[in-house]
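Sequence design from tokenized structure. All designs in this work follow the same two-part layout: the structure record, then the generated sequence. An example of the structure record is given first.
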């Protein structure tokens, strides 16, 4: 059995190589003038810059408003093909991120000029310029299958979130689990306002970044065990608040940048075995503290800043 299947893989691979050997000269012959494209993006240094840009994108929560290849929110345009527009140069992307009104005076996108500059900004622009994929959100990539039917959310809680100025909705057309964003409420968001949310089920993505939430507010979220992505960047939460995240065992993404958390707070995260990305730059977390967490959670990528070369 085993040897037969590996034989067919070999055959298949040989077929691919043959096909490639035939197709490549044909493709090249088809466009003798187009030499500029053949080298673009093949440079390994470029690949590193793009990888860094992808991290910067993730770290600043751009995906709460934008989709790339079917992942992310819908408040802003889908960015899967944004690099395919010839007007969209790296300079144009840098302007878009720094001060979106420079490109479009009516833009409602927040300006990130205070937070993203220098090398991270250039890397982000390179990443955006590399996005030339198909726009359709095909889910053929074998990502997590849509779950079985979930109970519809309590309309009274939805109404409360919307009254506050927050947003709540399904994470995708084919997936009724919820994403909740209160980022737009900003500093006026109080901890008490989060109390009614504690009854909400099936929340996968929660954005409390740039809001007035403190440790006491997180106590209301103790029962939210399905959350995979949590934004707490630029809030007043401290180590004590992180204790309330212990039950969020599905968490893969946690953004704590610009908060007062320290190495001691990371101890509360040791049981989050699914955690892959942890953003703690502009906090009091040290490299030693990050390394201690990595001993417990070898899969986690702890981002302490942008000046080092991106880790793999
Ligand atoms: C609060 C929601 C929100 C966030 C967060 C946000 N954007 Fe936007 N973005 C928008 C909206 C709305 C537009 C459309 C208006 C405009 O063109 O400026 C937009 C437009 C864009 C465009 C132009 C797309 C095109 O093809 O015309 C790019 C590129 C972009 N955003 C990148 C980013 C990046 C990178 C980040 C993170 C640093 C980010 N956005 C964060 C809402 C957001």
């Amino acid at each position: 059995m085993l040897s037969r299947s590996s034989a067919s893989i070999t055959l298949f691979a040989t077929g691919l190589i043959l096909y490639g050997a035939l197709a490549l000269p044909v493709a090249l012959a088809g466009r003798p003038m187009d030499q500029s494209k053949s080298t673009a993006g093949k440079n390994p240094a470029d690949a590193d810059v793009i990888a860094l840009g992808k991290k910067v994108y993730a770290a600043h929560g751009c995906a709460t408003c934008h989709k790339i290849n079917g992942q992310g929110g819908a408040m802003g345009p889908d960015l899967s093909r944004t690099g395919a527009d010839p007007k969209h140069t790296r300079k144009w992307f840098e302007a878009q991120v720094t001060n979106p009104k420079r490109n479009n005076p009516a833009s409602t996108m927040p300006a990130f000029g205070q937070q993203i500059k220098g090398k991270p900004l250039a890397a982000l622009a390179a990443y955006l310029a590399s996005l030339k994929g198909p726009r359709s959100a095909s889910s053929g990539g074998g990502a997590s299958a849509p779950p079985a039917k979930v109970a519809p959310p309590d309309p009274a809680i939805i109404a409360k979130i919307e009254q506050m100025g927050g947003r709540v909705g399904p994470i995708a057309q084919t997936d009724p689990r919820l994403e909740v964003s209160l980022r737009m409420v900003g500093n006026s968001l109080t901890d008490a306002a989060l109390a009614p949310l504690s009854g909400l089920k099936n929340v996968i993505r929660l954005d409390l970044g740039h809001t007035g939430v403190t440790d006491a507010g997180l106590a209301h979220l103790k029962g939210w065990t399905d959350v995979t992505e949590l934004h707490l960047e630029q809030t007043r939460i401290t180590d004590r608040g992180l204790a309330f995240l212990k039950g969020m065992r599905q968490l893969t993404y946690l953004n704590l940048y610009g908060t007062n958390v320290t190495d001691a707070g990371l101890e509360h995260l040791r049981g989050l075995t699914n955690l892959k990305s942890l953003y703690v730059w502009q906090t009091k977390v040290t490299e030693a503290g990050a390394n201690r967490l990595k001993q417990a959670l070898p899969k986690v990528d702890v981002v302490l800043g942008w000046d080092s070369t991106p880790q793999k």
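The two ends are 36 Å apart (CA to CA). We note this feature because it recurs in several other targets discussed in the main text.
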